[in-house]
Amino acid sequence: MKSLLLPVVTLAVLSPAAFAQGFSDSARVLESRPVIERIPIKREECWNEQVRTYENRTVTRTDTGAAIGPGTILGAVIGGVAGHQVGSGRGNTAATIAGTIAGGAIGNQVDRNNAGTTTESVPVTRNVEKCRQVEEVREATVGYDVRYLYNGHELRTRLPHDPGPRLKVAVDVRPVAPERAPPPPPPGPRPPRY
């Protein structure tokens, strides 16, 4: 294990990156322009709308509003005829009157039972929620194109925020391998001597 570790450490120490040193500095911002993109957005838009409709309702009534209903009249006539048929002589008139009263009472009860519930179509106003999909395009700032000056060099970058008048920059300093001198030109024909 030690024999493998020693070459790796030696290589890391002798590599040019090992001699690199970094520090931070600031540069003067020449221009900072926002980068604006158009972003499509879908949203739901809802509202309440009043709608007038008709609704069937069962209504209970105890009085139809008529003084004498049709059932009372029909019951009195039938009761009077039946009483007249039953009675004879002087009791015939009394039987007719009694039949009329009893028939009218029965017919009146039938009227009341029938008048108790009815179905009516009643106008009703309701709030109905309606919705639709709306597509909008909104503009959003997605970054800033920054032009800045550092050490006499004009540079550009894109940042997620506006840097203001000064921009903090990271400087990486490392040795550069020397360039080789160009090889001498190949010997050519010698000029003639005079």
Could you provide a short overview of the structure?
The chain has 194 residues and is an alpha+beta fold. The chain has helices spanning 2-14, 70-86, 91-115; strands at 21-60, 117-150, 153-159, 166-173.
The biggest sheet amounts to: 4 strands, antiparallel
Proportion of residues in extended strands: over 45%
The run of helices and strands is: HEHHEEE
Mean pLDDT: 78
**Cα Rg:** 55 Å
Q: What is the overall silhouette? A: rod-shaped
* Helix-and-strand structural type: alpha+beta
State the distance separating the first and last CA atoms: 74 Å
Which blocks of ≥5 consecutive residues have pLDDT under 50?
4-14
Please bin the fraction of helical residues: 25-40%
Number of distinct beta strands: 4
Strand line-up of the largest beta sheet: 3-2-1-4
